[in-house]
Design a protein that fits this description.
Blueprint (H helix, E strand, L loop, with lengths): L1 E13 L4 E3 L4 E2 L3 E18 L6 E4 L2 E3 L2 H17 L4 E8 L10 H15 L6 H11 L11 E4 L12 E5 L6 E7 L9 H11 L3 H21 L2 H20 L10 H15 L4 E4 L6 E6 L3 H9 L6 E5 L6 E6 L1
Parallel strand pairs: 5-7
Antiparallel strand pairs: 1-4, 1-14, 2-3, 4-7, 4-8, 5-6, 8-9, 10-12, 10-13, 11-12
Bound molecules: (3R)-3-hydroxy-3-methyl-5-(phosphonooxy)pentanoic acid.
(3R)-3-hydroxy-3-methyl-5-(phosphonooxy)pentanoic acid binds next to helix 2 and helix 4.
Length: 328
Amino acid sequence: MKATAIAHSNIALVKYWGKRNGALNLPAVGSISITLDALSTTTNVEFVPGLNKDQLFLNDIQVEGKEQIRVQNFMNLVRRESGIKNYTVIKSGNNFPTAAGLASSASAFAALALAGTTAAGLKVTKKDLTILARIGSGSAARSIFGGFVEMHKGIYKNGSDAFAEPLADENYWDLRVLIAVTSESKKKIGSTDGMTQSKKTSPYYRNWIAASPKDLSGMRAAIKQKNFTKLGEISEFSCLKMHALALATTPALIYWNGTTVDGMHLIRELRGKGSEVYFTIDAGPQLKAICQAKDEHKIKRELEALPGVVRVISTKIGGPARIIGESV
Ligand code: PMV
């Protein structure tokens, strides 16, 4: 009745922003990501008789409020599926400082989905696991797999076709991601609230949805051909489009700080000087640079030298979520 799972975070090259259904957390667009080896969450789930709610501990500190409710709602799905009535003790830890503004719901819900279903004795396919993880957090579905992963938006109302699947594993292509941390404070507007506002108010929302299939097919081809230039160009384009949509939301979602913008200029400058590197940015101020293994050290030094960069975390492409301990 207990299990421990580890899952890695991921970064979308073709971004997801917008939901076609909020309750089931169905994405309005598909997305393609790479799993990040260096950033992971390890989660232990144990069903314990006699508890009156799920107890959640993050890095040894008990968490109450919104986060606890979100996790309990998620565990209710596992209880419904397994018929188990007991609540759980959930101990979760990140291998990166949580205060770093990198806390990732992707690795968290992927690890929780795997540890929770395993502790409950459920036999679920990988596909169904991604569907479950998606209900916790859209990007979490992609963290079930290693390497290059596509999340399908699906068209069914019940979400049965909104799942993630691998395009290539973590050994397929030796790319690196350099995460330039530019701020350690918590983000002000979470992705769910941001997406709701963008859908309601951003004049670019319809075009964002309409343009998505082209980015997805281009990225699939870039991965298949190992065409790094194409992968990088589509990544930057998708990132900037997502932020254009966010910036044109009311109230405006400005996730960047000055250093994020300086970082984008730096990356473009380096490219002008012959280093192949591209950026991508999620709903926060950290800048992620994507490059080939041969350029990793040079780009890392350049990013570290940029005023305002707190530190740079370098990572390879990571593997799938997996169980690291289990007992009845
Ligand atoms: O999984 P969520 O709800 O935290 O949304 C993730 C949104 C982005 O990180 C900005 C883009 C993406 O595809 O991961």
